[in-house]
Sequence to fold (354 residues):
Amino acid sequence: MAILLSTISPPLSQDNIQRLKEHFDEVHSFPNNKDVPIEIINRADVYFCLKRGLPEGVSSFKDFKSLKLIQLSCAGANDLIDNPSFAELTNSNDLNIVVSNASGLHVTCVAPYAIACILNIYHRLPEQLLNQVNKQKWIDDLPDHHGNRYKVRSLRGKTVGILGYGHLGRECARLLKTFGCRIIAANTSGERTQDSGFIIPGTGDFDATIPEKMFSSKDGNSLREMISESDILISSLPWTKQTTNILNADLLCLLNQDGVFVNIGRGNVIETSELMKALNEGSNTISAALDVTDPEPLPNGHKLWTHPRVLITPHLSGEAELEFELATDILIENIKKIKTSQEIINRVDLVKGY
Fold:
């Protein structure tokens, strides 16, 4: 591999650039994603980028005449795959480009985020914070949503259903198991599968041995059964045609009383109108913690922002320190594999979308 083009923003650190120079003859970084000379685009063997795809001013992936690998610094590949120019490229008969994502590097921040949200809801910290900021009074009997006196809920003994058992789902399972939770999970096949791709040592559940039961996310009855057993439902699904609107109000209303829905995957799994219906009309009084929404960004002033049982963060759970260092690790590992004619890690299936 001779030439690397990076449009990663914020800019790659000098340490990362030096690491990359050990594997490339030329390293070109344009963190503003614009003013990239066409000559560099024509010659680049590897394109290291965020999900946004083409550099500004470049109209077609066909301008990358020497490109062999697109390395994403994020887990989601849908924006790239849905780019009309990339679709045109993949529909041709001469595609020699492989795509790798950064799935696996966010487990040390996104999975703890999910646990933190559940604990915030179980310990009612949002209400305590509002009391601190707005009332500034010592209130130790803050009533819950049923009018009962303040009480901390325990994770021990709760059943957690994990929808999507990839890197994030497995790390959530590992962490929640230490709290004494019962773990059940759903993937496409409904079978226990080994993890693959980039794995940070000590994280996850490689052989899928933690869940007590496995369910199939593409089997409606199986999915309903998993949700109906769950006190907490965590969705870590990617954005694909198959995951779009996989959940609805009726399914969330199957959660046990005072259930919690956490979405750390993609917002397309449930329409916001359906989520609002479950929150407002369901007899099980669920709460929700959302790092992703539909649409995204969630419009200013939307009723979901002020719902008393909802926590929202603007897709920031994966904005972690050392994020690009780990993404660089994946890129370097893939370059080594390409040089030795091995299969790259985290290869994106362009049909499945992940």
About this structure: The chain has a mean pLDDT of 93.
